[in-house]
């Protein structure tokens, strides 16, 4: 039986509606949570991401502001921008769009963000809160992975979870969230021996690698839930055919655009997995929804009010 496709777009929409309702309640009490996005220079991909984030803010009723220092900005100049945002009471969330230009000390800039406004959840203070199960701001993409699992009623406690990838942005926090939800967690990386064997242990397999279609059917235990975080652009027609030959909808799209988005999971995994997130339309939409959620959460935490619950699981 083919895998159940876990519809990230629908789940993200559900979360956005919940956030919009919360924003409305806060507005009645005279509070409008605000997100500041710092976009340095003119990276076309970053500009698209930031546009998506600002639009999403508007849709849920959040205040948003975009700051656009020039490509030539120095570390000191960016630190001054962050300090100003840290001080402002109308700004609850600060997001520094990565990558930053080469001359900027990105770690120093990210460290300068007030942890209470760190809606990306990258600050070591929030990393520490997550690993010690204290309330804090959790990175958006891994938080979205957990929302997909919980809202799809996939049991986590006591299950074997394998995360492939150990980045600070995705792999490590995803592993920590699964551990906090009482899974037995294994984290894999490029030095892991016999990766397919380790992955086949998983009831829940999270792929956050950045390699198109690397997770093939021999990595997957029949019936497992597979969460594909990867976002890889394929432009080579031969590579496209290797993954999507016979998929007429994809073929038409590829002809039109000259590229297609593929995850880290090979499409053949749909024949063996129990449940699977698609790419696009899986984890991706959750990332922005969780950013909206984190902005509201930061606004509430800063004002000492009760933090909204998301997952009902
Ligand atoms: P990184 O490049 O920072 O990390 C990749 C991880 O994968 C590393 O830990 C690396 O191991 C591991 N890895 C690489 N090759 C192999 C291999 N052959 N076998 C086993 N492990 C391997 O990437 P990110 O974590 O930032 O992102 C991962 C993917 O998720 C990317 O495709 C990215 O585009 C996507 N992404 C999607 C988001 C969304 O909204 N859906 C948001 C963020 C990311 P090692 O540590 O040993 O080098």
Can you tell me about this structure?
The chain is built from 11 helices and 11 strands. The chain is an alpha/beta fold and 313 residues long. The chain folds into 2 domains: 91 residues, Rossmann fold, CATH 3.40.50.10860; 144 residues, Rossmann fold. The strands form 3 sheets. Strands 1-11-8-7-5-6 form a 6-stranded parallel beta sheet. A 3-stranded parallel beta sheet has the order 3-2-4, sandwiched between helices. β2, α2 and β3 form a beta-alpha-beta unit. The longest helix is centred in the first third of the chain and has 21 residues. The radius of gyration is 20 Å and the shape is globular. The model has no long low-confidence stretch (mean pLDDT 96). NADPH dihydro-nicotinamide-adenine-dinucleotide phosphate binds next to α11.
Secondary structure: elements and pairs:
Elements: E1 4-5, H1 8-28, E2 34-38, H2 44-60, E3 63-67, H3 75-87, E4 93-96, H4 106-112, H5 124-131, H6 140-151, E5 160-164, H7 171-180, E6 184-188, H8 195-199, E7 204-207, E8 225-228, E9 232-234, H9 237-244, H10 248-257, E10 260-262, E11 275-276, H11 283-302
Parallel strand pairs: 1-11, 2-3, 2-4, 5-6, 5-7, 7-8, 8-11
Antiparallel strand pairs: 9-10
Helix pairs in contact: 1-11, 2-11, 3-4, 6-7, 6-11
Bound molecules: NADPH dihydro-nicotinamide-adenine-dinucleotide phosphate.
NADPH dihydro-nicotinamide-adenine-dinucleotide phosphate is lined by residues 141, 164-167, 169-171, 188-192, 195, 208-211, 229-232, 283-284, 287.
